[in-house]
Specification:
There is one protein chain. The protein is α/β, with parallel strands linked by helices and 141 residues long. The chain has a single domain, classed as 4-Layer Sandwich (Metallo-beta-lactamase, Chain A). The chain is 33% helix and 20% strand. It is built from 4 helices and 5 strands; from the N terminus they run E-E-E-H-E-H-E-H-H. The chain has a 5-stranded mixed sheet with strand order 1-2-3-4-5, with helices on both faces. Strand 3, helix 1 (56-69) and strand 4 form a beta-alpha-beta unit.
């Protein structure tokens, strides 16, 4: 826990999931997606979640981890446009009544993959980077 007036963080690592690729690795093992890290940055009461995971099962585990922290999640932050950093942002935002944020450049990166996926960009509320920074500064106070 963070002492009064400071920020702390914890990291959740989602286990690798199998890739839909038939060819094994050279050592014969199945190809797996990389482990994913989700960070909870928190103050005394409130928190932000950075880089929600890829699958709904992973989001459920991350959500349970966040709930156990006792923190009030105010924002879900997508650091960049790859789906493994925002696909479940809406799931966690709904669970914690939080706002999803990313910079315009991150939204632009996400757009091509968003159009080719079953998920909609409507789950991602976009703010400018300066707005995000100003919220973090007020969050830290």
């Amino acid at each position: 826990m963070a002492p009064n007036g400071t920020l702390g963080y914890d990291v959740f690592i989602s286990e690798p999931i199998p890739l839909a690729v038939d060819a094994p690795l050279p050592n014969g093992e199945r190809r797996m997606f990389s482990p994913l890290s989700t960070t909870l940055i928190y103050g005394t009461n409130d928190a932000v979640v950075v880089d929600p995971p890829l699958t709904t099962d992973q989001a459920a585990a991350v959500g349970d981890w966040i709930k156990a922290s006792g923190k009030n999640v105010t924002h879900i932050v997508a650091t960049h446009g790859h789906g493994d950093h925002w696909f479940t942002a809406g799931v966690l935002a709904d669970r914690f009544d939080a706002r999803v944020v990313a910079s315009r450049s991150k939204r632009a990166m996400a757009s091509p993959s968003c159009r080719s996926s079953l998920l909609s960009m409507s789950c991602l509320t976009v703010f400018t980077a300066s707005f995000l920074v100003s919220n973090f500064l007020s969050f830290a106070r």
